[in-house]
Amino acid sequence: MIEDRRVVVIGLGYVGLPLALSLIDAGLEVEGVDVSPTRVAELAAGRSPVDDIGDDRLRLALEAGFRVSVPEAASPAAADALFICVPTPITASKDPDLGPVRAAAEYVREHLRAGQLVILQSTTYPGTTAGPLRAILEAGGLVAGVDFDLAYAPERVNPGDPLSMAKSVPRLVGGITPASTDRAARLLRRVNDRVEEMSSADAAEMAKLLENIFRNVNIALVNQLALLCERMGLDVWEVIDAAATKPFGFMRFSPGPGVGGHCIPVDPYYLAWRAREFDFVDRFVELAGDINLAMPRHVVELVADGLNDRGRALKGGRVGVIGVAFKRDVRDARNSPAAAVLAGLAAHGARVAYHDPHVPSFIAADGASYTSLELPDLIAESDVVVALVAHRAIDWQRVYRDADLVVDTVDSSRGQTTRERQVLRLGAGWSGRP
Ligand SMILES: NC(=O)c1ccc[n+]([C@@H]2O[C@H](COP(=O)([O-])OP(=O)(O)OC[C@H]3O[C@@H](n4cnc5c(N)ncnc54)[C@H](O)[C@@H]3O)[C@@H](O)[C@H]2O)c1
User: Fold this and answer.
1) 85 an active-site residue?
2) Taking the complete model, does pTM exceed 0.85, yes or no?
């Protein structure tokens, strides 16, 4: 029985870095590889670029022998097992972009030797591991399942939630042969208490997409309900609170200005794209994507409505956005709906500024770049303040005490004392909360 002791992790971001550190904690010899020299330099200097991984933890790992290198300086041929944890983005026309996976696979192929185990961990459509990944690796002459093992094992990292990286979170794995599944599962059991072996890599890829699409679809459902509640004069937050008292068969999701991050807005398009190859249009998945993508426009409308209530126009209006990260308490602003909100406001002639304690600078969807203002300055210099992310580090009491007008898209006014027609709430309309 092969024991994998030396591991190379390719791609040291939100997924690869925690994996590498947990492998170190399990006593394995780990080398991390990243194409970004900046990323390698900051990691080598003990600065963690990832929420939920403290510098202390990274430094301990470096002291314990964790090596980080750019690809040219790494030694993948010396590894027993290699994990690929690179991004899987979408193109401008929302098709899967396997560019980084292909590049990483080509890198692995250059160094691949018989007896190694390759595990893809990036989120992707069913068929990637057994299709393009296998084809690229086998182009070097070795055969998957015969000369080397190949498996897919998705990640369940949830930025801002350190518990999502706990050993107790079960992992899924599916290999291209039972032997590959078994070997990958044995390695993963070094870092996770429970590893679920699946019948194929395709099934594991589909399970990961289901997890993320489940979130996207349910967020779309409550976003649409929010729009309806606004028209009906109902408060969607009250409605959701009430439904959530049901102790079974219901799971709480919250409306908001749209979805962001690396997974939720992207992964549905991986499935929709793959489905079309089977003459299957996944209308449900595409509809959810459309609803969530339209939310930033609705936020712009709410801001215009709020200003209109004060006899002002969006054009020339000073709009202060609070929060541009893709979700609360993280510094990750990738695919944040704030990018579309800021660009939409600017397109209507608004003068836009923002505050985010976790994101010092930000580029909007129109390419305009912004620098975070201090919260008191933002409030003082804005005709309307828009709450897009409910970071805990924000002094919400100050916001609701000092701002004349707030558009609240994330229920940040809950528990605050507010004045009559001070707050226009997504999914609820005007409210004063005495
Ligand atoms: N962020 C999450 O919460 C999360 C959760 C589960 C799954 N995933 C999935 O994991 C994958 C990685 O996501 P992430 O959030 O860690 O991305 P990330 O952008 O944080 O990190 C990816 C890293 O890979 C590096 N990289 C890119 N191409 C490379 C190459 N060819 N060789 C070596 N390094 C390369 C980048 O420089 C970057 O540092 C994606 O498929 C994503 O969908 C992400």
Assistant:
1) no
2) yes
